[in-house]
Design brief:
With 122 residues, the chain is mainly beta. 3% of the residues lie in helices and 48% in strands. It has one helix at residues 23-26; strands at 3-5, 8-10, 16-21, 31-37, 44-50, 55-58, 66-71, 76-81, 90-97, 110-113, 117-121. Strands 2, 4, 5, 6, 9, 10 and 11 form a 7-stranded mixed beta sheet that branches. A 4-stranded antiparallel beta sheet has the order 1-3-8-7, with no helix packed on it. It is globular and about 35 Å long. It starts with a strand and ends with a strand.
Length: 122
């Protein structure tokens, strides 16, 4: 199980940093990433990181504003979110898995999930 923390409420233009830890999962994961789901919308990939080499991928909607990173020593995944916009409001999930194709992947590619942390931008 993955455990997220760090969500909260922020004004538009502000920043938040969310983190995810699960040593037993992230240490051996091929790909770890962040998804989000807003009310009435499908879960969408936000950012992904491949642990062999730390290559990263982002959704077009967050490119240049969000940064995914992984602390290998602490087995902790981070998502730094800057210049937050109203449309970034969602429940953010950490996930680990093995996408079929290198990139963001889809929710079906990930078999380990956290419980989610709420991010609200007003």
């Amino acid at each position: 199980q993955l455990v997220e923390s760090g969500g909260g409420s922020v004004q538009a233009g502000g920043s938040l940093n969310v983190s995810c830890v699960a040593p037993g999962v992230t240490r051996n994961a091929y790909c770890i990433g962040w998804f989000r789901q807003a009310p009435g919308k499908e879960r969408e990939g936000v950012a992904a990181l491949y642990t062999a080499g730390d290559s990263t991928f982002y959704a077009d909607s967050v490119q240049g504003r969000f940064t995914i990173s992984y602390d290998h020593a602490e087995n902790t995944l981070f998502l730094q979110m800057d210049s937050l916009q109203l449309e970034d409001t969602a429940l953010y999930y950490c996930a680990a898995g093995r996408p079929k194709y290198t990139g963001l992947g889809t929710a079906a590619d990930f078999n380990y999930w956290g419980q989610g942390t709420q991010v609200t931008v007003s």
